[in-house]
Task: inverse folding
């Protein structure tokens, strides 16, 4: 993650509901900035948000993405 700072990045989140057959996907493209140790109000507010990751492992870094493009879609099976 440290190499992504102030570079163009893309981040995707998606989900699928097997009961309804509906899924969705959102892609954010923009510039990344590490905010792990930032003391400005913006960085502190973001780090205060509740984030519940599904994947196990260490969570040492916080990265903010300043979006230039946000796209999404919903699909049905």
Result:
């Amino acid at each position: 993650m440290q190499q992504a700072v102030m570079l163009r990045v893309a981040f995707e989140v998606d989900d699928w509901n097997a009961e309804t057959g509906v899924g969705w996907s959102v892609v954010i493209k923009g510039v990344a900035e590490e905010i792990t140790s930032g003391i400005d109000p913006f960085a502190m507010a973001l780090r205060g948000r509740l984030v519940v990751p599904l994947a196990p492992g260490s969570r040492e870094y916080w990265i903010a993405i300043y979006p230039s493009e946000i796209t999404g879609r919903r699909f049905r099976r």
In short: Residues 2-76 form one domain.
